[in-house]
Amino acid sequence: MTYDPENIFAKILRGEIPATRVYEDDETLAFMDIMPRADGHLLVIPKTPCRNTLDASPAQLEAVIRTVQKLAIASKAAFDADGVTIQQFNETAGGQEVFHLHFHVLPRLDGVALRPAGQMGDMEAIAKHGDMIRAAV
Ligand code: 5GP
Question: Does residue 39 line the site of ligand 1, with CB under 6 A?
C-alpha cells in the first residue's frame, strides 16, 4: 500500500482545505474531527507522510504519541471529562477511512455514549470546542 498525497489530511497539512487547528509543533498537527463522536473529538497526525501504524517510522509514532498525550490531558481538562478514549485504525479492514496516520482523542463523560460515526458536526460548536482545547494546552 502506498501513501496517496491527495488524501484529505495531506490537504489540511498543506492548507488546501480548512481545519480547526488546536495544536502544532515541528512534527505533528492536532485538529478537530469534522464528524465528532463526542464533544472535543480531535485528531493528531504527523506532518510527514505515512498511511498508518503499519508503515510509520518509530520517530513518527513517537512524535505523534507525545502530542496525543498532551492533547488527551488538555481535552480532559477542557471538558472536565472523566476519561479519554484514544483510537487508531489501520487499513480498510481495520476501520481506517483516511489514509494518513491519525489518532482519535475523545474526552469522555461517565455514562455518555459515543455518537454514531459519520454524522457531520455543528461547525460553531466544533469551533467553540477547539477554543476550549487550545486554551487548555
Ligand atoms: P478513520 O480513518 O480513523 O476511520 O477516521 C477518519 C476521521 O476523519 C473520521 O472521524 C472523520 O470524521 C474525519 N474526517 C474525515 N474528513 C474530514 C475532514 O475533511 N476534516 C476533518 N477535520 N475531519 C475529517
Answer: no
HSE (CB half, 13 Å, CA atoms) of 33?
24
pLDDT in tens, 97-114: 999 999 999 999 999 999
100 is catalytic: no
**Global confidence as pTM:** 0.98
Closest CA to 63 of 97, 101, 94: 101
How far does the centroid of ligand 1 lie from the alpha carbon of residue 33, in Å?
Answer: 6
Task: Collect all residues with Cβ–Cβ distance below 8 Å to 72 and sequence separation of at least 6.
Answer: 84, 86, 105
Look up residue 108 and give its three cell numbers. Answer: 469522555
Q: 98 CB less than 6 Å from ligand 1?
A: yes
